[in-house]
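INSTRUCTION: Work out how this chain folds

Token vocabulary: learned, describes local backbone geometry

RECORD BEGINS BELOW THIS LINE
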Amino acid sequence: MNARVGLIHTVLLATANINATVPASHPSARNLGTERMGSGTVVDPDGYILTVNYVANGATSIVVTMPDGEQYEGDVAAQDFDTGLALLKIDAHDLPFLQPAPPESIVPGQPAFIIASAGEQGRRVSDGNVTSLESYDGQWEYMLEKSIRMTAFNPGFGGGTLADSLGRLMGVVSLNLNDIGKFSLAIPIEYYVRHEQELKEFGRVTSRPPRPWLGFYPQTTAGQVVLTGVTPGGPAEKSGLQEGDIILDIEGQSVVTRPELYREMWNKRAGDVITFHILRGEDAMELQVTSSDRRDFNTK
């Protein structure tokens, strides 16, 4: 028991509370609000903190509070909209930090625990077991080919630390999956490790072509892909796609699931024109949508 308490304490020292302020004019403010609280993990002793992008996206002010109460002004050092990760930088050195867990060490059934911020110096812990490493797709044009799901509810703000029994960072906790039970979903740390130097140097992943982004919210219903909404001012709205449209195919390729839709879209590059065949009411029609780069839309 003492060994476990010591492990949790060691990991806790590398966690952070994040308070981000976002202008009301930013595109993300409509869904995520202007005052955001998040959790983070120190991944470099020179002040780099890993969190989820939805906490930091659009932030003009970030205050980072460490477990000892020390506060720092933070900057967004990098954003990866494809994986949903963000890297913050504070002016600090010799911080406690976590080493990443090797990808091959993360397997279904293994024990793990979450430490998440509950406000400034407050931290909460929950534990469970990894249930799967299957893919995950979300309705905001987001998909991970690999995710970490575990039988523990995220006890605090998004961006929390998922650690293994050796105190290594397995992933960044992103979502509570309430619709399928008491599960949490984490973004595997390998997505950060793979592009760490690019993120630190350029603020984004430059070796991967930007995905086309349309600004819509698809849902799979009864074997059909239906749009449940469009982003105001986004490419989909500008090109005429509407809530309630049923997508029949993309570039002549039939799609009946959200992953199929995304994979067909992402065969193109940001800025390309994508042809959709849709059903609107009883009318079938063709629409051409000029895609964009999600990063450009969120950082303009």
Observations:
- The domain at 212-299 is CATH 2.30.42.10 (Pdz3 Domain).
- The radius of gyration is 20 Å.
- The longest strand covers residues 122-132.
- Helices lie at 2-12, 29-32, 53-56, 190-193, 196-202, 235-239, 258-265, 294-299.
